[in-house]
Amino acid sequence: MDGFDGRCVTDCEQCPDLVASRSRIVNGVGPDDAELVFVGEAPGANEDEAGEPFVGRSGSVLDDALDNAGVDRSAVRITNCVRCRPPDNRDPTTDELANCRGYLETEIETVDPTLVVTLGKVPSEHLLDRSVAITKEAGDVVDCRLGDRSQRVLLSMHPAATLYDASQRDGFEETIVSAVGLAGLGDGGNDDGDGQSRLGEF
């Protein structure tokens, strides 16, 4: 993959609509050896402008949830299934997701996290390669195949869901606490060191 160092894409023109829509390629941010990786859907307008994922209102919700779980944003890696903003913030197409899949799988393999958290329905379905009822499955931990590796994945609501429905906020924050605990980070960690957090609580 030319223009790709295992984590960051510097040049890609596989998706004509995305190339036309983007002002820049938005790569993942965070440590190259992060224990916890969050995967969103695609950059929006704020992300396209800033060149960093989850920097708008949704990003503030995620940052607050991480803070409440005792972890700073800088300690985790945040990326997207698709690295270029879709026109009019539409969902990425199946072809666009497929074109970017190799970049995402290689990034996750390179970082080698303990846990991946999918933020919303699109990344959950993309990584698991099946239909996902995200409101029912949020908080579930599954093992999925990413390239040549098995990866532990925690499904989560998208942080934007809490902006449209405040009743989702507690559940989202509980999922982030569980993610932090499963990854062995911050206040969400479990003192007995068995890697299991508070998934049984919800």
From TrEMBL:
<feature type="region of interest" description="Disordered">
    <location>
        <begin position="183"/>
        <end position="202"/>
    </location>
</feature>
<dbReference type="GO" id="GO:0006281">
    <property type="term" value="P:DNA repair"/>
</dbReference>
<keyword id="KW-0408">Iron</keyword>
<feature type="domain" description="Uracil-DNA glycosylase-like">
    <location>
        <begin position="27"/>
        <end position="181"/>
    </location>
</feature>
<keyword id="KW-0234">DNA repair</keyword>
<dbReference type="InterPro" id="IPR051536">
    <property type="entry name" value="UDG_Type-4/5"/>
</dbReference>
<comment type="similarity">
    <text>Belongs to the uracil-DNA glycosylase (UDG) superfamily. Type 4 (UDGa) family.</text>
</comment>
<keyword id="KW-0227">DNA damage</keyword>
<dbReference type="InterPro" id="IPR036895">
    <property type="entry name" value="Uracil-DNA_glycosylase-like_sf"/>
</dbReference>
<keyword id="KW-0411">Iron-sulfur</keyword>
<keyword id="KW-0378">Hydrolase</keyword>
<dbReference type="GO" id="GO:0051539">
    <property type="term" value="F:4 iron, 4 sulfur cluster binding"/>
</dbReference>
<dbReference type="GO" id="GO:0004844">
    <property type="term" value="F:uracil DNA N-glycosylase activity"/>
</dbReference>
<dbReference type="Pfam" id="PF03167">
    <property type="entry name" value="UDG"/>
</dbReference>
<keyword id="KW-0004">4Fe-4S</keyword>
<protein>
    <recommendedName>
        <fullName>Type-4 uracil-DNA glycosylase</fullName>
        <ecNumber>3.2.2.27</ecNumber>
    </recommendedName>
</protein>
<dbReference type="GO" id="GO:0046872">
    <property type="term" value="F:metal ion binding"/>
</dbReference>
<dbReference type="InterPro" id="IPR005122">
    <property type="entry name" value="Uracil-DNA_glycosylase-like"/>
</dbReference>
<dbReference type="InterPro" id="IPR005273">
    <property type="entry name" value="Ura-DNA_glyco_family4"/>
</dbReference>
<keyword id="KW-0479">Metal-binding</keyword>
